[in-house]
Design goal:
Four copies of one chain form a homotetramer. By secondary structure, chain A is of the alpha/beta class. Helix content of chain A is 41%, strand content 25%. Chain A is globular and about 60 Å long.
């Protein structure tokens, strides 16, 4: 499977490396407006630098990995779909839900395989937890609890264009909640504050947020986000059900513990998503490749991307208007 | 300090035993409509069976421990306050907030010492966590997360008269949230379902519930409750702040772990509140006695009781009317 | 059951309080050469100060708790046995194995119930571990591993008269090894050093020690001792068997953990035996009382005391002569 | 750096893959008596199949990775040393200590870089623990405790030619003990039994073993081995010192825990050395390459290999002759 990788930034490098590491795949082309970045990534993966249009129209490309800025995602997906490529796209498809819908219409017409990059579903810990729910380990899921905190806030410039915490950060947790609940939330109530950095508040966003959701059958979910955690990249999940509770916790740098006069000191947790989710990114790419090769619709799908964005919009609305929001 | 214990049921026995165990205290009298229960408790604590009015008017009684049914609490507090007794009363003061207010007015006029039995503040784990927050260990508190689940649901008859989950169960968590936040919540949004037992739903209550709250300065809290946890009495707290996170977890029956072909199996957590909070009840009583002896106003106070009930009412309203509720 | 408590020191106080707390028992008399200590303990337990001979000959005494200095134990046991009392005696019966044998001969002739105070068998964690071995949870025990470290070394004066580390400290671990192995060790090899305090070495003893033992059927045990652990009173056990491993660990002061920039910091472990084994002492006394009331031979018995001392002697010999020692 | 890999079995594949994954290294040639195995490994690493003598004399080979059967190691090391290659050799150099000495004499004369494959030193957990000892975290090391258990016993045929448990399995622990103690053991006492499989005992070996060792300055070490652990590949270390204790534990398959009616069930530990030490093998190879490129003597050295074998011999002697053995 020959890939065109569009975007040679941080996430483009991860996906390109994972493609290159598979014996049955190849990074054929890399495109980026930053010529140096494109050249470097092409070199490290044995690819050729090219332009987006050339990649899209090349017969030597079977799949594209869209790792460009968010505002290009929907256009690129449509272009790739029309060109008959299999598409792996980083989340979100777009910030605007209507734009996502139009994009998915195009994809539906072309029947192009599309997978959206919710990498956390592929974290071996979270994937195992979900698999055990699916196998009935806790019976019906009743309450899902997701904790997700970044080690430190992004630059204000990022906050301004990212759509804000609910859309750029909590979107992962909305997807995870759906993944674990196995049902769509029908109502949401969000609270949030700028406690970490006043400038985030002045930019019209929050850096600390909690959300509750419920599904039609009454299942409940709660999410907690912060843009700062002194102890590292805090990524935890609990699912409580009729037969028990499953939880998946953080990964520590090592298992070393020091017992001394001040207590028992365990190692720090992994500090950021590139470390914590390195394996998840690889398994995500593997899943995409295997699905495309087998002719299966990849999951998480474009519809999963849409659903997460709708929840993010609803959360943002709930926070801004200080009210509970119902989803149609 | 000579106590009159009013109510010889499960909780009355606990408090009476803790009074009797102190060398500086004595259970002088026990009253209960169930004569056999009163006699048994009087015998085991070296006390005399008496009647409520007699206890209230006795010069040989310095303090009363009100462990009678909830609907008697407010009347008994007023009677005891007018009689000049120090008052320890189980939560809640009343189910009706206006009744609580009138009761506290009487207490205020008499200046009687009044402590409300939020026992969890005295759990050594939670008390240590709060003390470390107060000492600045995590800087400003930003997000408080409370998980509280009972091993199994109460009888429907109890649900009918208890005021429901938000008022009989989550009230402890509202008090804990206030204790840890150090600020009053000004808004609340509650969701809840009857997932454990349909009969609870038919009785107009929920058995699974999640709540989010915020304070004026933007601090956030989330609470999760269930009337059933197959793994025992789940009682956990997290407080996330500018400098780090403090957490306090469950207590296991023993430290024994079995490593075998199916994984590493740790012991169950303590199964119910009598075991989990046995020490908390003792420390609570000690705190009451020490405060009264020293002439300090006991804490948690009647006002703490009122505040927790107001939050419970707001949660119930939020759940019933499916909206976010603002507290004046 | 009416007790005479002989010795009003640290351990005497513990046992006396546990006797006094039982509704079916009473501390009738207390004896100690330190009159003030005897008076204080008598007062706190509702007893009367008396003399050893008077206690032994009193018809108002059913049982004696021997908490006097070690060099008095054997004489007191014999005196009590001849007086027909049930006997609870702190370990060891004597430092000299021949003296223990003679003492047990007297006990055997009188058929007096005798229990030796190996309190750790009654620690709920270790007791549960042993019960699970007995119930077959790990199949045949193959390797027992015991770690036992004190927070800080005793005064040199104590080392001089205690018989040394193998006899005053590791004796508990020898008893625990026998308790868990269910077989007698037939060979032992000990190594030890004075690493904590040179003065201990100069006094002819060690403060750090490791031992290996084997039984006739080839079961293995290893013990590790240190007179100093900066992190508290380290008391751990592992039992490895054909079907898995059971372990029992330390108890922490609270469950509170702090996650911060330097890692995850858990609370210290309980710092000394009075805290760690408070419950074990109570259950030990309960076991003695129940056995005597039921007419059962109490366990651990005098023979258990003898066996532990024999192992301690063998360990000391192994260390001093730098050789493996075989037990007859 | 161009490698000749000698031996295309399980361990040869690991080292070859790690060589191939480095951009600055290349597997040039692979040799194995099993032509199919050699061909498969050559194919997967982009190498050419060759013969040992050809590899040794090739100017296109800078280093050899010796992954052949143990009885060929010493000859191959000598041949490679004389041919001026850098040498990475799996442990042990030979089963016979005199043969190891002669081999190291040859290496010393040629000044060829030689590293012996004690992979556990490179496990990130154990490496971090050792680094913290070296940085003074616990002050002087006093007691090192190593637990090492395989999930299941090897075939009897392996036991017969491996030199036995002390030489093929515990040798890793002897190296680890030396690594952590920072001093040479001067005495050892070993006990062992065939508890897992009688056939192992009939073959003259043990499958369960414990050892104690001491150094000149009195530092102590204890090792526990079993050929079977139902719960997986048990690999743990503790180092107790003047300022505290460091420990490093097992790795679990995931962080998922299930809380249910039977307790809290954590995931199994990693089941075998290929999983547990995959990263250690990579870091080991990296260390070898970096040392050779920088002109530094690689560590662990041939002398480390010799020292571990001497301890294994002493342990075997101690076990067989039932006595403490002193090392010169």
């Amino acid at each position: 499977m020959r890939f065109g990788v569009i975007g040679a930034g941080r996430i483009g490098k991860i996906h390109a490396a994972n493609v290159a590491a598979r014996p049955d795949c190849k990074v054929a082309y890399v495109a980026d407006v930053d010529a140096a970045a494109a050249a470097a990534l092409a070199k490290s993966t044995g690819a050729t630098v090219s332009a987006i249009d050339a990649i899209m129209s090349s017969n030597a490309v079977d799949a594209v990995a869209i790792c460009a800025p968010t505002d290009m995602h929907a256009d690129l997906i449509e272009q790739a779909a029309r060109a008959g490529k299999a598409i792996f796209c980083e989340k979100p498809i777009a910030l605007d839900v209507e734009r996502i819908r139009r994009c998915l219409d195009v994809v539906a017409k072309t029947a192009a395989p599309l997978m959206v990059g919710f990498n956390r579903r592929f974290d071996p810990n979270f994937a195992a937890l979900q698999a055990r729910i699916a196998a009935g380990a806790i019976g019906e899921v009743e309450i899902v609890t997701i904790t997700s905190r970044d080690p430190s806030p992004p630059p204000i410039s990022y906050v301004a264009r990212s759509g804000g915490l609910y859309r750029d950060m909590m979107i992962h947790d909305f997807d995870m909640a759906r993944f674990l609940l196995g049902e769509e939330p029908i109502a949401i109530s969000a609270m949030g504050s700028a406690l970490v950095d006043k400038a985030i508040g002045e930019a019209g966003d929050v850096d600390s947020a909690v959300v509750v959701m419920e599904t039609k059958s009454g299942k409940l979910a709660q999410i907690s986000n912060s843009r700062r955690a002194t102890y590292g990249y805090d990524q935890r999940i609990e699912a409580h059900g009729a037969k028990g509770m499953l939880s998946a916790g953080n990964l520590r740098e090592t298992t070393v513990e020091f017992a001394g006069a001040n207590g028992i000191v365990g190692d720090k947790i992994l500090n950021f998503f590139l470390e914590r989710y390195a394996l998840a990114y690889r398994l995500e790419l593997d899943t995409f490749v295997e699905a495309v090769k087998a002719g299966r619709k990849p999951s998480p799908s474009g519809e999963d991307g849409l659903a997460a964005n709708r929840l993010a919009d609803a959360a943002y609305l709930s926070w801004r208007e200080k009210r509970r929001v119902t989803l149609a």
